[in-house]
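--- STAGE predict ---
source: upstream dedup step, 1 unique chain passed
mode: sequence only
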Amino acid sequence: MNILIIGDVIGRAGRRALKALLPELIKEYDIDFIVSNAENAAGGFGLTLKVYEELSSLGIDVFTSGNHIWDNKEIFSFIDQKENVLRPINYSKENIPGRGFGLFRKKDKNILIINAMGRVFMGSNLENPFFMVKDIISQYEFDLCLVDFHAEATAEKYAFALYMEHEFPEKANKICIYGTHTHVPTADNFIFPSGMAYVTDIGMTGAWHSIIGTSYDAISKYLTGLPVRFEVDSSQGILNAILLKAQDKIESIQRFQIFENVV
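--- STAGE serialize ---
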């Protein structure tokens, strides 16, 4: 089974790059299942129903997210109805819409997908993601488990992966822990000794010659220290993703960084 996991899609440039590059990737690598982080897909902030439908039409099976999932208030009108749209599992359990995980069936495989958010530099009001994800993995039987760990600190991401490896040695070779949020891809795509697949951050799908997907105007924040509204950059796009190959266990994890062709 070939699973493609796409890094944070940033606004129109990210969606444009997906439309241009994803069909050929699906064909060339015989992709069976696609997951994408879409918390910035609508204008760089949140997810709308129209954008959800646009990305779904490209063949994306499941959408994960992070701290920006609530930025566009339209999400509240449909997140409970869309079982393939996930938000971080470790928000408070009180009256939070949506779901933090799902069990999906594809090619006779049960795929457990969990969306969690780190707490270092992200928000102390979040529940502990280590314990919450451990609890879900303990409860469910699966052929493959994918965890989008949406976090700022690289050490927290790696620590999270090592903790899961330690807690589930018998399941580790069916688990992939991958990081999102920083928009910067890392070169540490590994298969751990236990067989667990890991990468600290997939990177983003958006305008690459930009400030993590936003226009150069955002530079004023760093020059003056004053708040500024970030606008999505519209220049040449890039697609960052990982490809997992798995049968009875995860066999490989491969990084992709593909530039959009521009005329």
